[in-house]
Specification:
234 residues; alpha+beta; Ribosomal Protein S5, domain 2; five-stranded mixed β-sheet; five-stranded antiparallel β-sheet; binds adenosine-5'-diphosphate
């Protein structure tokens, strides 16, 4: 597992946010909502809808990436949304939307798993009711070996890549696979990725408890004391 760094609540204007590094991957996740849905015809009278936008900065990869959405970013956005939506208690907020944005600042393979991890922490930071956090990690095959959390070279020149996301109870919400595994290799990679997700979960949990145990009363509604904020505007 590559080293992980998590910072919670890094964006003042988002309801919840998280900066996360996993090896050389660097991403920011921002959560807005529950808030009114626009366009309104997307409203669901029974629950909140969940939207997820994954975007790779053009400077995040070695050769400049063409800015804007493409097939890959649509796919990653969809699977990331589907990996998080099952734990969000959407029925608490009918007719509203929870918007999740993930910006990849630096990419080194496994950005969808880092994005999901950061988004899960940002959702918790936004106070969105969830049944649990979601933790993600990939396993792969490189040089004939089953490896945890493949980096760019292992991903590009390896034989297989399998991102996984799950709850701390082991309920899987994302399982994708690129390349080939034998049945035995698949089992080994699945166990390894599950173990990786558990390690990520402990780090996510610690980042959240550290952040909230350090906070003083009043900080939870924003970054500053409302009286000091009002004085600053005068
Ligand atoms: P993930 O980042 O989730 O592993 P992929 O397997 O599709 O998703 O991508 C693997 C890696 O390939 C990315 O993390 C990134 O480093 C690189 N990559 C992806 N898209 C591009 C691109 N358009 N240009 C250059 N490198 C890219």
């Amino acid at each position: 597992m590559r080293p992980i760094k998590i910072e919670v609540g890094v964006l003042a204007r988002a309801d919840g946010s998280c900066y996360m590094e996993m090896g050389n991957n660097k991403v920011i996740a921002a959560v807005y909502g529950p808030r009114e849905v626009h366009p309104r015809h997307l409203q669901d009278v029974t629950r909140a809808i969940v939207r997820f936008r994954y975007n790779m900065a053009s400077f995040s990869v070695e050769d400049r990436k063409r800015p804007g959405p493409d097939r890959r970013s649509h796919e990653v956005s969809k699977v990331s949304r589907d990996s998080l939506a099952p734990v969000i208690l959407t029925s608490y907020f009918p007719r509203s939307v929870v918007d999740i944005f993930v910006e990849v600042l630096q990419a080194d393979a496994g950005t969808r798993t880092v994005g999901i991890n950061a988004a899960s922490v940002a959702l918790a930071d936004a106070g969105i009711p969830m049944t649990s956090l979601i933790s993600a990690c990939a396993a792969g095959k490189a040089g004939g070996h089953i490896v945890l959390d493949p980096m760019k070279q292992e991903d590009n020149f390896g034989e297989a890549d399998m991102p996984l996301a799950m709850t701390p109870n082991g309920e899987i919400t994302l399982l994708q696979m690129d390349g080939d595994f034998t049945v035995d290799e698949f089992q080994e990679a699945l166990e390894l990725a599950k173990d990786g997700c558990q390690q990520v979960y402990e780090i996510q949990r610690k980042a959240l408890t550290d952040r909230y145990s350090q906070m003083k009363e009043g900080d939870l509604c924003g970054d500053a004391n409302p009286v000091e904020e009002a004085q600053a505007y005068e």
